[in-house]
Amino acid sequence: MLFSTLLALVSIAQDSTMLKKQHPKSDFWDKFYTGGNLGVQFGTVTFIDISPLIGYKITDRISAGVGATYQYYQYHDKSYDLKTNVYGGRVFGRYFFTDNIFAHAEYEYLNLEAFDFYPRRRVDVGSLMAGGGYVQHFGEHSGIVAMILYNFTESVYTPYQNPIIRIGVNFGL
């Protein structure tokens, strides 16, 4: 009797373990990740870039998200002093070909000062960018991300030139 009861418990335990493996529980919050870019430069040119992002893994290969951008730029020498702020946001999507290599597309909207007329004025700049990237994982849900993007809508007001190189970090929640 004791032997048959133990045998039944072991078989039930094995069945529930097999069910968990066949139907893994998907936690909604495990699919979110956060990160972004942080850059600083000091000297004659001072540049500070804070660009956080939050993304969601739709599938194992596809993710999408949103991000914000703030940049402070100052150029100072004996005869000239320029200070300006750039701010905006972006939406993006990624498709992973492997665990490390992905395609990236985004639309970025920035508000910045234009220096083509006096007095200075602020302009809105939209950029459609695409390219590829590589993520070097240093944890189950975290990694260093490097991307090379091309801006297909580059204009005289775009704050950076093609190609655009970004290096940042992502952390899983």
Protein model, in words:
This protein is mainly beta. The protein has a single domain, classed as Porin. The chain contains 1 helix and 8 strands. It has an 8-stranded antiparallel barrel with strand order 1-2-3-4-5-6-7-8. The longest helix has 21 residues, at 2-22. 13% of the residues are buried.
- In which order are the strands of the major sheet placed? 1-2-3-4-5-6-7-8
Name the helicity range.
Answer: 10-25%
Low-confidence stretches: 1-23
Q: H/E series, N to C? A: HEEEEEEEE
Could you give the count of β-strands? Answer: 8
Mean pLDDT: 82
**Would you identify the CATH architecture?**
Beta Barrel
**Cα-atom radius of gyration:** 24 Å
**What would you call the shape?**
elongated
Strand content: over 45%
Structural class by sheet pairing and helices? mainly beta
CATH class: Mainly Beta
In this structure, how is the largest beta sheet organized? 8 strands, antiparallel, barrel
The number of helical segments is 1
Kindly identify the CATH topology.
Porin
The number of domains is: 1
Q: Termini, distance in Å? A: 48 Å
Give the topology:
Blueprint: H1 2-22, E1 32-41, E2 45-57, E3 62-76, E4 81-96, E5 101-114, E6 121-137, E7 143-151, E8 164-172
Antiparallel strand pairs: 1-2, 1-8, 2-3, 3-4, 4-5, 5-6, 6-7, 7-8
Labels describing this entry:
8 strands, disordered N terminus, 173 residues, Porin, 8-stranded antiparallel barrel, mainly beta
